[in-house]
């Protein structure tokens, strides 16, 4: 029996007669791997729900990187210095790379990239709601780097230890590369905050707009996040949404002070008993609206992605046609040679 | 089931415009082996090498890259996992640490 | 934060190549006429980087977003080298020159200012310009001006790659489908009127002797190599007359103003600010 599935990638169910026994042994093996905090690899047996959860999570993550290129890409042409232009270009390019690493990890689970991409283009797949907000000013490049990438990193560092091997490995690569993203964002805000009054105002305004949405990047509060528990049991997620959010708040308070900017949260204050900063309630109605396609820029982000895909169709076809022709020519040349 | 893909002669993704998947291996510096870095899509091997260079060595991670059509990789069967790598276990005499008499003797 | 050290496929380094900062801190002051020549080279690279940057998040496939971004980044790097060096003649920075010169003060050729159009048109422009730049830098590495020679040496290696990228795509588009062939041939026709001016000698360049490279001296090699690759791709070398006015003055360019309006808008809202 032959299979289309590449050797390094997921293997679909085999002969149905042997299925029950295979599932039992597979589950046992899988449970042992999780219990030992070892790693699941693509060709291992895994519960269907585990596979589905991962495909959804990893592809959403990939889509976020790809859509996330737009708000920043929007400023490449207007970056106010050539150095900043180069940094921003490199950063947006990295995001394309991160999207590719993640699609590559998702593909090992048996869903090809064009299927995942189609889910995005059809509006069936979600991506991080933060990218549905506009990037109106240059300071937004700073706030996105510092707060949005900062939140992403806080989320991603524990994912380097995710139980699914390819996902963890993709995250290691991404975390290594992202270390510059957050710093360059912080530096943009630092320059603005220590520049002219107009620049400082621009920086404060950007922080005011991105603070809440960046805290929402960790997902709904734990009590409203039913899937989190299972993800944690599977060692995909290592910390709950609220734990990660708290950790992030604790980090950025001091960083904001070093920037000489304020965080727009009147309830933000040190809680001696908890040993953490308390923070005010977040607007989860807004979050739900934005994540489900009602964000200020949702329509334009999707339109832009679809347009690029459609405009590129003839190019992809041409390259595929050329590959077939040259392969056929090579094959016939070999026949003649033989 | 067979791990071979004998019906995928070209590895070029049939008639669709979807570009096939390639596995990428990167040699980080001279003297080291190529290590699997991830995968990418490309219409053919020529473009796959170039895409691999752009994607996986943006920060000087490599001095050489290999690309292999994912379909061309033949892997050991994970279902026989137990047996397949069992034979290598229990043969501790293959490892230097098995031989203890020479402890303390230099250059051995 | 620590990562698995055995994972040698992710070991990174910054490399050690020339940077714009090296040129600024190196302190060699460009003679005024050399600086004016460096503006030609720098402005070409800057305009094309600006044009190519548009493709990021719009390319036909994600892998190609990355490839075009790499090329744009290389060109932006070249622009920063040349403009930093040019600025040393007048006590100006790369940013003074990029953001606070008006249209008529730029010295880019019209080819790099042309609109991206579709991917075929962009690749046509890439092919022409990378082949031209390759011939130019290949000779500029022997410039009697050591800074120009050093920049050319760094840039040459990168331009070789741009040339390869454009050639690979010309082959695929030329020999791929009927549609791709038509589109890339249209792209070549659109860009071809701006080929002649790349090889236009002027008084400044002639006066610079072995500091500069005479553009006319590149033409024969360019024509031969372009004809070869287009022939291999089954495409025609367009039989189109050169567009009137190719003196880099901007007098005959409509595109330049649009590019600068976008590129300079923020910097000019905040004159004197640092970023």
TrEMBL record, chain A:
Residues 1-27 are annotated as: Disordered. Gene3D superfamilies: 1.20.1260.10. Residues 10-20 have a biased composition (Low complexity). InterPro entries: Aromatic_CoA_ox/epox (IPR052703), Ferritin-like (IPR012347), Ferritin-like_SF (IPR009078), PaaA (IPR011881), PaaA_PaaC (IPR007814). One of its GO terms (molecular function) is phenylacetyl-CoA 1,2-epoxidase activity. It comes from the Bacteria. GO terms for biological process: phenylacetate catabolic process. GO terms for cellular component: cytosol. Pfam families: PaaA_PaaC. This is Phenylacetate-CoA oxygenase subunit PaaA. It comes from Kocuria dechangensis. The lineage of its organism: Bacteria, Bacillati, Actinomycetota, Actinomycetes, Micrococcales.
UniProtKB/TrEMBL annotation, chain B:
The gene is paaB. NCBIfam families: PA_CoA_Oxy2. It comes from Kocuria dechangensis. This is Phenylacetate-CoA oxygenase subunit PaaB.
UniProtKB/TrEMBL annotation, chain C:
SUPFAM superfamilies: Ferritin-like. Residues 1-25 are annotated as: Disordered. One of its GO terms (cellular component) is cytosol. Residues 1-16 have a biased composition (Polar residues). One of its GO terms (biological process) is phenylacetate catabolic process. This is Phenylacetate-CoA oxygenase subunit PaaI. It comes from Kocuria dechangensis.
């Amino acid at each position: 029996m032959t299979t289309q599935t590449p050797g390094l990638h997921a293997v679909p169910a085999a002969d149905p007669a042997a299925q029950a026994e295979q599932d039992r042994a597979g589950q046992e093996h899988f449970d042992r791997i999780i219990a030992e905090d070892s790693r699941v690899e693509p060709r291992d047996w895994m519960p269907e729900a585990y596979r589905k959860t991962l495909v959804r999570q990893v592809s959403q993550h990939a889509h976020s990187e790809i859509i996330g290129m737009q708000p920043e890409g929007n400023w490449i042409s207007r970056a106010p210095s050539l150095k900043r232009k180069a940094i921003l270009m490199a950063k947006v390019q990295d995001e394309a790379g991160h999207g590719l690493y993640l699609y590559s990890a998702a593909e090992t689970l048996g869903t090809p990239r064009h299927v995942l991409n189609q889910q995005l283009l059809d509006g069936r797949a979600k991506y991080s709601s933060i990218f549905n907000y506009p990037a109106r000013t240059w300071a937004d490049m700073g706030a996105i780097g510092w707060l949005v990438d900062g939140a992403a990193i806080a989320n991603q560092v524990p994912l380097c230890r995710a139980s699914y091997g390819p996902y963890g490995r993709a995250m290691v690569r991404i975390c290594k590369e992202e270390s510059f993203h957050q710093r360059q964002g912080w530096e943009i805000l630092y320059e603005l905050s220590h520049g002219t009054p107009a620049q400082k105002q621009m920086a404060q305004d950007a922080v005011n707009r991105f603070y809440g949405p960046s805290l929402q990047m960790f997902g709904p509060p734990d009590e409203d996040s039913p899937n989190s528990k299972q993800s944690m049991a599977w060692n995909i997620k290592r910390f709950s949404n609220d734990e990660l959010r708290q950790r992030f708040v604790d980090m950025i308070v001091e960083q904001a002070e070093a920037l000489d900017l304020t965080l727009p949260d009147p309830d933000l204050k040190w809680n001696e008993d908890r040993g953490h900063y308390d923070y005010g309630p977040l607007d989860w109605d807004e979050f739900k609206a934005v994540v489900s396609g009602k964000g200020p820029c949702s329509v334009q982000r999707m339109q832009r992605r679809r347009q690029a895909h459609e405009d590129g169709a003839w190019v992809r076809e041409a390259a595929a046609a050329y590959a077939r022709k040259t392969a056929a020519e090579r094959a016939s040349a070999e026949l003649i040679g033989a | 089931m067979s791990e071979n893909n004998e019906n995928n002669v070209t590895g070029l993704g049939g008639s669709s415009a979807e570009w096939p998947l390639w596995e990428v291996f990167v040699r980080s510096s001279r003297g080291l082996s190529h290590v699997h870095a991830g995968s990418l899509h490309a219409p053919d091997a020529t473009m796959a090498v170039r895409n691999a260079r752009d994607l996986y060595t943006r920060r000087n991670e490599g001095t050489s890259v290999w690309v292999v059509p994912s379909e061309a990789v033949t892997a050991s069967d994970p279902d026989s996992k137990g047996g397949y790598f069992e034979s290598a276990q229990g043969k501790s005499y293959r490892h230097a640490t098995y031989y203890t008499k020479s402890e303390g003797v230099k250059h051995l | 934060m620590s990562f698995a050290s055995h994972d040698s496929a992710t070991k990174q380094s910054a490399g050690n190549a020339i940077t714009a900062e090296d040129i600024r801190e190196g302190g060699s002051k460009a003679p005024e006429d050399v600086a004016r020549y460096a503006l030609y080279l720098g402005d070409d690279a800057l305009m094309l980087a600006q044009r190519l940057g548009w493709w990021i998040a719009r390319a036909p496939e994600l892998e190609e977003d990355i490839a075009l971004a790499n090329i744009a980044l290389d060109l932006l790097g070249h622009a920063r080298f040349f403009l930093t060096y040019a600025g040393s003649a007048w006590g100006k920075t790369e940013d003074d020159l990029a953001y606070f010169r008006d249209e008529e003060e730029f010295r880019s050729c019209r080819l790099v200012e042309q609109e991206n159009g579709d991917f075929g048109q962009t690749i046509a422009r890439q092919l022409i310009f990378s082949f031209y730049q390759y011939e130019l830098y290949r000779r500029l590495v022997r410039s009697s001006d050591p800074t120009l020679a050093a920049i050319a040496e760094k840039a040459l290696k990168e331009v070789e790659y741009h040339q390869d990228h454009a050639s690979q795509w010309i082959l695929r588009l030329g020999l791929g489908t009927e549609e791709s062939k038509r589109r890339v041939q249209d792209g070549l026709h659109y860009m071809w009127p701006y080929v002649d001016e790349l090889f236009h000698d002027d008084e400044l360049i002639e006066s610079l002797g072995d500091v500069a490279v005479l553009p006319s001296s590149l033409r024969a090699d360019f024509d031969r190599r372009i004809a070869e690759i287009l022939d291999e791709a089954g495409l025609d070398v367009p039989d189109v007359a050169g567009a009137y006015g190719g003196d880099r003055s901007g007098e005959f360019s409509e595109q330049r103003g649009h590019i600068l309006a976008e590129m300079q808008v923020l910097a000019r809202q905040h004159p004197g600010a640092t970023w």
